[in-house]
Write a structure and sequence with these properties.
This protein is mainly alpha-helical and 87 residues long. 53% of the residues lie in helices and 9% in strands. The protein has two helices and two strands. β1 and β2 form a beta hairpin.
């Protein structure tokens, strides 16, 4: 089934149900959201989703690195010979 141009450009998201900020900063350029086209707004939402995923992933990596460091310290501590082993 081929799509007609009108169905290809139809937004997959109803922007009237989404709250957008009044201004955004993309690549050090501040933009007034009211001046953006519908297509630009949709791409802006995708960018926001990707930014959130990146931030979530970076947070998860920090948590995992911290846990790894703590486990390494615990392993080192329990791997040292103890004076009380034979008692």
């Amino acid at each position: 089934m081929s799509q007609t141009p009108s169905t290809q450009s139809r937004p997959y998201l109803d922007l009237s149900r989404v709250t957008l900020p009044t201004q955004v900063k993309i690549d050090d350029q501040e933009l007034d959201v009211a001046t953006l086209s519908e297509q630009q707004k949709l791409v802006l939402l995708d960018l926001a989703r990707i930014d959130k995923e990146i931030n979530d992933t970076e947070f998860s990596l920090r948590v995992l690195r911290s846990a790894k460091s703590e486990l390494s310290r615990i392993f080192a501590r329990i791997s040292q010979p103890s004076d009380n082993d034979g008692v």
